[in-house]
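Many introductory courses stop at the sequence. We go one step further.
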Amino acid sequence: MNDIFQYWESKIAKEPEPLLVEAGFLRSYICFEEFMRDIFISFSLGKNYKSYTPSRSLCFNSENQLMEVIRGEASFVDYYKAIERCSKHIFTQDPFPIVFSDSCFSQPLLQMRVLRNYLAHRSAESKERYISKVLSSYGFSENLEPGDFLLRKMKNGTVTYYNHYMEVLRRAHSALTDEAILKGN
């Protein structure tokens, strides 16, 4: 996953164009979503990561069985929501709350999700959520395109919103893969 981040960061550093930044953000965020999906499925099936296997309250025999439970009647699985909704029931010591309840992660990840949805769908509803959940939370009254927003410097004046979000993804990835954190030490 860090390879993806480094690839886009070096590309964007050479050519900080809004469309390129949008592509880099989208690819990096999707990579993080895929990581969350993969580690959730592995843990749910009793597989370990870095010699850590969370104890489970519910044991699944196969990925198909797990998918039937988390998918329900839906044709598409929103893994982010499924993990948030189901992990507390699957694991006796849930390894995922740090992503959903720690304010260092939960608010920026929510904003990234809203931004990702706007970039992917460009619907009126996703635009409204982007303006209300992302832009207004940083005090922007103007309607900035995502690439322009991501290239803006944060109030501290040194870091762009793009770099801030990439750092949050890195830290969330580390928190989910750090053995000491996972084991609760």
